[in-house]
Structures are given as C-alpha cells and as structure tokens.
Amino acid sequence: MFNEHIFDYLRTDKLPHIWCPGCAHGIIVGSLVRSIEKLKIDKNKIAVLSGIGCSGRTPGYLDMNTLHTTHGRSLTFATGIKMAKPELTVIDVMGDGDAVAIGGNHFIHACRRNIDIKAIIFNNNIYGMTGGQYSPTTPTNYYASTAPYGNVETPFDIVKLAKGAGASFVARADAFHIGLLDNVIQKALSHKGFSVVEVMATCPTQFGRRNKMKEPYQMLDFVAERAISLKKWQEMSEEERKGKFPIGIFVDEQREEYVETYEKNVIERAKKGDR
Amino acid sequence: MRAEIRLAGSGGQGIILAAKVIAEAAGIFSELNVVQSQIYGAAARGELSKADVIIDDGDIYTLEISTADILLCLSQDAYNRYSKELKEDGKLIIDSFYVKNYDQLDKRILSFPISEMSKELADSELFSNMISVGILTVVGKYFSEESVLKSVEKNVPKNFLDMNIKAVKLGFERAKRKYPEVCGN
Amino acid sequence: MPNIELMSGNDAVVRAAIMSGCKFYGGYPITPSSEIAEGMAKELPKVGGKFIQMEDEIGGIGAAIGASLTGVKSMTATSGPGFSLKQEHIGFAVMGEIPIVIVNVMRGGPSTGMPTYPSQGDVMQARWGTHGDHQIIALTPCSVQETFKLTFEAFNLSEMYRTPVILLTDEIIAHMREKVIIDDAKNYKIIDRVKPSVRREQYKPFDSKHGLVPPLAPYGEGYRFHITGLTHDETGFPSSDHNTVEKLQKRLRDKILKNRKNFDWYEERMVDDAEIIIVAYGSVARSAMRAIKDARRENIKAGLFRPITLWPFNHERIKKLSKRCKKFLVTEMNLGQIVGEVEKGACGVKTKVNFLGRANGEFITPTEILSKIREVMNV
User: Which residues form the Pyruvate:ferredoxin oxidoreductase core domain (chain C) (predicted)?
Assistant: First the structure.
C-alpha cells in the first residue's frame, strides 16, 4: 500500500536517483524509508552513513543527518557518531565491497563490539559503479570485468560472517520478497545492538549483462528463485540447497550494547575514581 | 651549573622511578630546570635499563648526555656499557654486590653494597633504587636532602612510603660515613 | 594558581587535550605515541568523554571524525606507519571541513623503520600525505611546555577553521620529561565551534555567504545536512561542475592561507646581525639554540629561525631573512625536507642554503651543528 508520508523522509529535490533502470537499490531504500516511517523515528535523530559505490549514494536521498564517507570505512565514522551521541539512530548503508572487502575488518569488529548501529548491506555481488569487477560475494564461476574467465574465488556468506563475529541481530532478505524485507529492516531498527541486514540485490548493468541476465526481470528472478525461507531451508538436503540461500532472521539476541556498557562500566567508574 | 646524571641497571631494579624522584627533587622541589629521559621499552625484567637526568640552573638546550657527572651502575652489564661515558671529574656509584669486575684503580668509583643494604633494611632488594637516590643526593649536592625526601613522598605508593624514606636516609648516612671527603657537608 | 609539574610530551598532550574540552579519542596503539592513547583512555571518561581503541589506524581517525560531526572536540594520535594509514581520512576531514586534531609522534622510517628512535621524516607527509591539492596546518613544538601550549592551539585552530590540524612532535619531545607550568583552565584561550546563525531549514554546511569558514552544525539538532568526500556545492551535495569545484577548492585554500597571519608562529634568536641563520624545528631546535650561543662565543654571528607553524611554511619570512644574512644552515632529522622550503624562500637571493641532517635515529647534537657552522663559515 502506497504511503505518501514516506516523502517526509526523502530529499525529493534530489530525485530521480542515479541508479540504473532495473537496479534493486531503490527497492531497498524504499523499504528502509517505509520502515522508518512505520516506526515513527524522528528524522532529526537519525544519522545515515554510507561508503563508496552505488549504495553509497543512498544517504543523499534521505532527509536526515547524512554522511557519505570513504570506501569501506563508514562503520568507523558510525562508531564515533554513536559513541558521541548515543541518542541518534545510526544506520550504515554499505555495498558488498564496502562491508566485506575493504571494510571487512571494521565489519567484524563492529559485530564483536555489538555497538548499536544498523548495518544494511546492499549485496549485488559485484562492483557496479567502477565497472563490474568481481567482489567477495560474486559467486564462483560467474563472470566479471576482472574475472573474464569466470570467478575462481569462493564467496563470503555474510550472514555466517556476522554471526561468527558476534552481531546480536542478523538477517537476510532480498529485493523480491518485500514483505520479509520490510519486516527485517523494522526489526533491525528496533533492535538494540549491532544489527546486520544483508539484502540480496541486483545489478543488471554490470552483473546481469555479463551473466546472461541483462533484462532487469531476469536478475530479479535470479534472486527470487534462489531465496529460500529459513523454515524451508532447514528441511532441504545439501543437494537441494546448492546455488540457493536462506532468507529470514538468523540471530536475534539481547546482549549488552557497547556504548551503554562503556557508559556504565567505564564512565561511572572513572568518575568515582574506582580503578 | 649543569649536571648530567645517568642511572643504569637491570629492568625491574626501579631505575625509572629513581630517575623520576631525582628529576622532581631538582625540578619541582629545588626550582632547577630538568630534562629526564630513558631507554624506551626496556621494562622487561633483566634487560639493560637506563635513565638520564639533566639538571641546570639555566635553560637546557643539550637534551642528551655525552659524559655523565654522576653515573650509577646497579649491574655489571650497566657498568660494562656506560662506565666509559663518565667525565674525568665525575663520580661512578656502583652496587658492589652486582658489579664485581671494575677498575680498582679508578678513583672516581664510589662503591656500596647497595642490594645487601636493601636486604638488611627490608629483607628485599626492592629498596636498592631509593638507597641509590640517597647516595646520589649527597654525592652530587645539586639539591637538598629535604627536597629529595619531598619528592619521594610524592612519587612512591603511600603504603611503602616509610620504608622508602628509610632507604633514602640510609643512603645519605652510609655515603657520608664511607666517603666523608666527597659526601660531607 | 599555576601548578608546576614534571611530565613527558605525550602526557602534556593528554593534559592539554582534556583542558581544551576534547571529549573523544579514537585511535590504535603505536610506539612512540601510545602513552597518549593510554592517558586519554584514563582521563576522558572522568570528564564524561569517550575513548575507543579501534581495530586499526584508519578506524581510529574515522571514529574521531564521526564524533566530531556530533559537535564534540575529537582527536587521534599516531606515529609513522599509523600516520601513513590515516592519510585518506585526513583528506576526508579536509574535504568535509570537519575539525579534528591528529598528533603524529615522528619516529624513524620508512616502513616500520625505528619505532623507538626519533626522526623528523614525516614533515612532507604531513604536508602532502593525503592525495589531491589541499592546505593543512601543522604545528611543531620544541619542548614539553610548548607541546602543552600547541595542543590547545591545535584544537582552537581546528575549530576556528573547520580543518584537521596536525601536531607534529618527535620521539624525543614525546618521551622526555620536563617542567610544565600549568595555569588554571580559565586562563587559557579555548575556542569552541561556532554554531550556525541561520534557521535550520536554511542551513547550508558549505555556505560561503558566511565567509571563508561556514559554521558547522552538529548532527542530531535538526539541521539535517549532507557531507561527502566528493567535490560538492554549498549545500554539501556532490557536484563536478567545474565552476562550483573551482569555488570550493579556492575557498578551502583561502580559509587557511588568508588567515595565516593568525597562526603564523615562529621564534627568532639573534637574527638581527646574524651572518648565518640556523633553521631548525622540534627537538633539533634545542641543539641549535646551544650551537648558536657557542658560535657567538667564537665570534661567529649566528642566529636561529625556528618555525613553530611548520605548515603552511613561511617562505616570506625566509625571504626577508635571506636579504639580511649570508648563509642559512638547515638542520633536521631527515635527509632533507624543510631545507627545500627554505631554498624556495631564499630563491633568487645569493644567500646559500646549507644542510645538516640524517635519518639514522641519532639525535643531532649542538657540537655537530657548531662544527657545521664553522665549516660553512670557513673558520
């Protein structure tokens, strides 16, 4: 159902966006804005950050406190913002290159600290803006401009990575199953602690064209057909799981949040001279 | 007046604290200028440890010691490494328990069984550094006994203050008794 | 009542940062700057500030820039290899005009180099380390007392001009203890960030109507603006329109260069009748002070020019001095960095620029400088 209140959260004068026709990034941003609107979060109290690449342009369209940072390092800026002003809801939008290539180290450490930042990863399995080079999530044997003979690397499973590194909320959704996408983004926004939402996105221009899916619907099908609900996934055999991925919520735990813990365990003790 | 003091020994002998006590006795409690530096990262037990204190009644421009006016060596290693870098009219204070091989003819050497004194005082070698501070104070006479006692009070943990003060005073007394011509008033 | 304390250069940074109102430190441990991180970890929470040891150097400065955007004074500290890693984010702070103080305790390099030995090898890196044309402010102290003072100035300048400021110390100044006179906090000039005067909906983060330094609003107070590392227009949104970019680049340059007179600090000793002027900064300047005194005793008319603000470099002052003296002797703990700037300043004059420097971790002593003075003056 279309909700005109979402315009309150957009910088409509910055539209139309720069993304290619058929790109799924707009779908994810739409879901994010709907979720913020639904939760009635004060836009003055939201900071949205991004790294570099197509996803990096997201904050520019959002009427909030926005910061388009350096490639892969947005989580470090987000950490400083959250620590210095904990009352802000801090949302960090990253691409797959940002989150698990150049910024992989920041990502796992933010998970470990459980700092209250919402990390939304737009995973389109490719470096789109720079011309279709393979990323750490490009599936094996798929083509990219730097993998002209097919990708020989094994991709990261971002959900497993986040889970292993200690994030307290981890979910995966995709650009086709919008109900689930809205649901997990809202849960992530409401969760206290480091929240990871990996969204399987599409890039018809750079990924699709090189992999026989140049029409946007083909790319969306590619995502939709591989996305399996977690419940169903658990009933599938290893053979059936091949080439597919589970979607749903994988971790949802209440754990001590970093900034709160710092305030309680460090600032209070320091002020009392308790050392 | 410029005085270059070098304290050397093994990591764990409290060389750095001794240097700090001397530096503050001169700089804070005697209104002299002071520059104190040390070998960085020699905290591990047993490694050669060195700290320098430069005292001056004017501005200090030369930040490094070339040859010391007073050199304290609490270990044989320290003696071997630094004893050559002493002024002709300088004084070399050694702990005779640890420094066995030294130039017996060198008139600049003042020898004390510092770690033995510490053991007699407190059944531990922990106070060798403060005994050394006491000796050094009366050998150098750059600052008063009173200012060094104030500096000790400021720099050592409260629960060990009494014993540290005793150690410094033991240093004063023993030095004056053994080398009255150098350490007398 | 002023208090006199014995402290190291690194301790002095911590004390002055806290007194300046710094409330955030993001960093990563590295010799010989780690005592600053340790001191901030201890002192910041006492004043309600926050410290974080990030997963790497890049993260340390990233967190500090993020914190600064919420309106708090922020800093990071590092040394050599860490300074190399931080360069991209220094550029981000330049482009986004985000106040931040970066302390770099110089040690021997390149690469891991000599972690516990002094150097002045990062002088050009401080100037040009991040890519692209930009201006930077770098201050360099020659004593612990001056480290204390310049830390205040670094915070003030970063807030006044919305810019990263680099405090360039060296291993000697950082680790030696000296007496520092510490006055009551109220007796220090502390400059806080100017808040925007316009209504929230009219606010533009890079609006040149407000002069060369537009006010920076804090995140979370209703201004809702955008900052990017891309070239941008006055609203902060990306632009590659050549005229817009030209205007931005010029303002970024002018806000530093046209305000330079406000922080153009240097010290001169006995230059009036000097035939040879020693140019030295940081710890080496201490040796130079001794050397010129000793030279005077030998009837060599020597003087000292000590830049305190290293960047932007004061070429004009060198030009003036060059008309007065016969020779310059630049001495620094590197293989020749500031000497090039002195040559630039003395360009077109007959005054010869001589050089004494090395990068082997050994300090340059007064005796060496004096011998070089004798050699240069043919006595």
Answer: 274-369
